[in-house]
Amino acid sequence: MLLRLLAACLFVTSVLAQNTPVLLPQPQMVRYSEEKFPVSLLTVAMPPAASAEVRFALQELKSIVGERTGTGIKNASSSASATFQWVIRREGGALPEVSERDGKSTREHYKLTVSNKGVRVEAQTSAGLYYAVQTLRQLISGEGKTAFIPGVVVEDRPALTYRGVMMDFAHGGLPTIAEIKRQIDFLARWKTNQYYFYNEVSIELKGFPNIAYRSGYTQAQVREIIAYGRQRHMDVVPFLNLYGHLHELLRNEQYAGLAIGQYGHELDPRKSATNALLKDWISQYAELFPGPFIHVGFDETWETKRIADDKDARINSEDLWVQQLTFVQAELKKYGKTVLAWTDMNNYYPDIIQKIPAEVIPVLWEYKPDTVEINRYLRPILKEQKPFFIQPAVSGWGHIYPDADYTYDNIDLCLQAGVKHKALGFIHSVWTDPVEPFVRASWLFMAYGCIGAWQGNVPDKKHFTETYSHVMYRLVAGPMQKAFDDLAAANEALDKCLGRNTNGMPRGTIIESWSNPFLPYYLKNTLEHAADFRNARRLSESAQAELITALATCSPGDTAFIHSMIVTARLMRYSATRFLWAKTICDRWNESMLERKKNDFVAYDLVYPCHGLLVDVMDEAGELKTAYSEAWRSEYIPYRLNTMLGRFDVENGLWEKLSLKVIDYRVESKPDHVADQSFEVLFKPDF
């Protein structure tokens, strides 16, 4: 009897497990029952005295239910009669505060209970209520009138107090305000509470009319973003550079004199005009961003050190770095700001951590999946017993589509180190240095890091695309999962072919993707990696097919994202195509002319107006230019678009020029003429 009872219990547990919803992030405690509550019976009351944050959370609930049922939630006549009950224990607490640094805050805690009588949320603040609603979004099963919420008790709280994503608004395309709001909505689903606005000179400032003119954001737009984030319990944190990485300022003649190098990257702290400018900037940024935190960068100030080492022995680059950070921290303290700064210059100045101002919070960034490198930067921080943040990244700076395993492992190792050593927070970097890739290709990996920061451990990466696709794209989960997996595999194949010898430039496949494929180096490389290039094409085509399939039945809100991913797949395919086609063209010519000594319809194969190999490339580049432009405009403002489209124009022109060379050679020769030179030598393709 005991064995039968045990077997029955295991069967029930198994059935419940198979039918329970996927929850990302995974709550601290989940206990399911056999009860369930029909979503159609959900009612809610909106008390007149409810705060703006509570009202927003309840409105979010109504939108979620409306999306799943088509009818929405009915209004209850009173709070007592509502089937959605909520309790908030204290007012305020919408955003993370400096006072939560001790890790003991209960501000985001919540308990969610679903029975056959209704839904109840108990939370410390409106933030907990909002996060309970995000969990409830994932608990709903079914569609329309049959949708229900399984019986469950959820008790949840974050592992890390501060959980942020740093979005790059300096290097690549600049997202539209609508796209920034989509990013914030997306990150809110994973209970992210900080959105770091990385800015070099992409925010307009009073008294500096040339800064960010048509290449950035107005202060009114930034305030709109801040307000939007606050509604979703996400503090928009200014992420500035107040020493290095200011080339876009210093390349202007008006400000060039403030640089250490000629039209360089770094301000000269020895000049009084430098700090006068920074005082003005700091006052404006402090007024614009009301939150308590500010990240001031201070990374990669190599130029000062290089000039000090090679040209000017009077410069003590370490002292200047400390002097400037001390000045910036003191100025920001006047406005009540808590300063964060990167610590990578510890690599050059081994004692720098003990010299930084006591109130500055060091931020360790390491973007490689390398425990040795992480610990190299971590040890000095631990030695000085400083509270710290840790910052991994999506590897989007070197690839059209991020390197999946590289990114997953980097996030995992940084999160492990952060949790083990009680980091204050976790910031997930999204860089756009190569400009060409779309940030939307990084969303999957952004979610992975944000989920891990709440849970305190990363999701199972082996099944992450499956669970993520189920949560994000429930109507087309299968095709989306397959597309994500194919894109990752396509990048892995390309990574075997390109990006191995970038020598100081960003590591990755994108650096060489527009190089001359007819150069001896690349023809040899293509011969050695032909199977990998073909595999990249096959996988990119498969991803594109899955994404096109998903378009037919996806949620209307996902179509723009899927279109961007289709362009990403096509860009990856094109990268492989141009190298394979260059090798195929050379082989076709050389095999016929040099080996067989026979003019065997070579010109037809290469330049026939609608089917030649050279025409193939022009067709694809031309069509891709149009699709790329459309995808860019759906995500970014026009700034830098022409720089990207120019690549397609030059590419098309070079293949067209080569095509005309072949046509002219054929016209000028006799019908049976056999060339005595290889294709690459005879035509000297000039890319």
From TrEMBL:
It is an enzyme of class 3 (hydrolase). The keyword Glycoprotein does not apply. Keywords: Glycosidase, Hydrolase, Signal. It catalyses: Hydrolysis of terminal non-reducing N-acetyl-D-hexosamine residues in N-acetyl-beta-D-hexosaminides. Residues 161-367 form the Glycoside hydrolase family 20 catalytic domain. Residues 21-156 form the Beta-hexosaminidase bacterial type N-terminal domain. Residues 1-17 form the signal peptide. GO terms for molecular function: beta-N-acetylhexosaminidase activity. One of its GO terms (biological process) is carbohydrate metabolic process. It comes from the Bacteria. InterPro entries: Beta_hexosaminidase_sua/sub (IPR025705), GH (IPR017853), Glyco_hydro_20_cat (IPR015883), Hex-like_dom2 (IPR029018), HEX_bac_N (IPR015882). Its EC number is 3.2.1.52. One of its GO terms (cellular component) is membrane. The active site is at E300 (proton donor). Pfam families: Glyco_hydro_20 (PF00728), Glyco_hydro_20b (PF02838). Belongs to the glycosyl hydrolase 20 family. This is beta-N-acetylhexosaminidase. It comes from Dyadobacter jiangsuensis.
